[in-house]
Amino acid sequence: MSTSLERAQLWLSDAYDAETRIAVQALIDTNPTELDDSFYRDLEFGTGGMRGIMGVGTNRLNKYTLGSATQGLANYLHQEFPSKEKSVAIAYDVRHNSDKFAKMVADVLTANGIKVYLFESFRPTPELSFTVRHLGCDAGIVLTASHNPPIYNGYKVYWNDGAQIVPPHDKAIIANVGNVKVDEIKFEGNDDLITYIGKEIDEAFINACVENGSFTKEGKEDIKIVFTSIHGTAVAITPTAFEKAGFTQVHQVPEQAIPSGDFPTVVSPNPEEPEALTMAVDLANAIGADVVIGTDPDADRVGVATRNNDGDIVLLNGNQMNTVLAYYLLEKWQEAGKLTGKEFIGSTIVTSDIFYDIASKFGVDCKVGLTGFKWIADMIRTFEGKEKFIGGGEESFGFMVGDFIRDKDSVTTALLVSEIAAVAKANGSSLYNKLIDIYVGIGKAYQEDLISIVKPGKEGAELIANMMVDFRLNAPKELAGSKVIRVKDFQSSIEKNLITGEEKMIYIPKSNVLIFYTEDGSKVACRPSGTEPKIKYYFSVSADLQTKENYIEVQKNLLAKIEQLKVDFNK
């Protein structure tokens, strides 16, 4: 295996431009640690594609790593569709270099004779998914690093159904990318093969979001909403979608309505983090708003906050938000007489088990896949024509309504969750109480939490790998005073009953994930992130709940149990 220095020296050849050669030589001369991290491996496709720090090197996002990925994709498209005119849609977010990267990627495709539909400016990721299907493209690309810090960027590939790539296409594309030599990348594009797109697609996308995310006009003029795009792409679409859906009291956080790859008003532009919604909550308190909605930079994730029964604004976690969304969709389908028993909702292995309960209550199936919306989209593809997908989501603040978009979609989700809040308010209730009503309806309250441990760089990747090995060799025997009775290992595809010793196969694609189940129904999962230098621990607990009056006490006990699980699991 070549060393990082040897790999870096290859980048000093004339195959690379002068600016790149100068930057690489500077790393060799002055910064061996950064050199090692920049060249010790090649960037890989994870659950969300290729994502990394911008800079020179094989482990960085730059002209050559993106060029190799795109040349490999172009080669694969020619293999898959040898006799037809091929087209690819490209979108990008507000990050530094995203627009330049998007044009460079477009040039590589057109240099390979592939037609490109390139957005004229930044757009939300879900609009790219929609566009691939709307225009009948063979693939799609979005340049984004989602909610990562400003030094990151990324590259996600979509197939012709508007979903992110899954097997066999992902492995085949990666194989093609691996075979690309730098001097084989065709950078000299053909602008005659580029069609710039914008307002016409926006209008079709917004209309589809409103159609799929709206069931009634009830209460929409009375609900007061604070919305923030947290400097991201949603500002281009979501305010118009709100207006078209009939919401008349939507207030944007003005400072965060300014697109910026620096995300200057937040520590992290991630609506999963309470801090990211601080300014929105402050505005909501100042104007007496009912609901707060915030989206991440590429507008696929959405965070929701609402007032509790004391009038305080509380942030719903991703499972709680998705609980309300899935339940409401099923209610509407039931009211319309559309439930036939051949419908399903989608979830993931690290998401709350409440979705099994909800599906059971309405007589539909709950299908569960690996983390990442590409797996929910894969369910839709697999069961197309046999079962109808209603909606689905994962704990990381993502939800998808119907199958007109095949990725998580903050635009339609924002409309739907606002409608739920509006209807609840019109009937003397609230979004918060709607959630409690659902818990009472299924007879059980759930509570979840998440720990993310960041381990950057080459050393961090090795530490995370060793942590997973240790969990397998030294699995916990007891958590929060309850015996661990079952373990699912998605890497070995084996579920083991620790009481009887019985083993069962897991028929889900292999992944480096472990889930521990305790005697009292608690669930703890551990999983290295596919797109970030993190290992994540997911905690989920539940308890019987028969009346709304008992919810606060039950929730308090569940939160205490989670804290104990964190202590026991993270020793």
From TrEMBL:
Q: Outline the extent of the Alpha-D-phosphohexomutase alpha/beta/alpha domain.
A: 44-178, 204-307, 317-437
Pfam short name (any one): PGM_PMM_I
Instruction: List required co-factors.
Output: Mg(2+)
Please name the PROSITE patterns in this protein's record: PGM_PMM (PS00710)
Q: Which GO terms describe its molecular function?
A: magnesium ion binding; phosphopentomutase activity
According to its UniProt record, which protein family does this protein belong to?
A: Belongs to the phosphohexose mutase family.
Q: What is the protein named?
A: Phospho-sugar mutase
What does the organism's lineage look like at the top?
A: Bacteria, Pseudomonadati, Bacteroidota, Flavobacteriia, Flavobacteriales
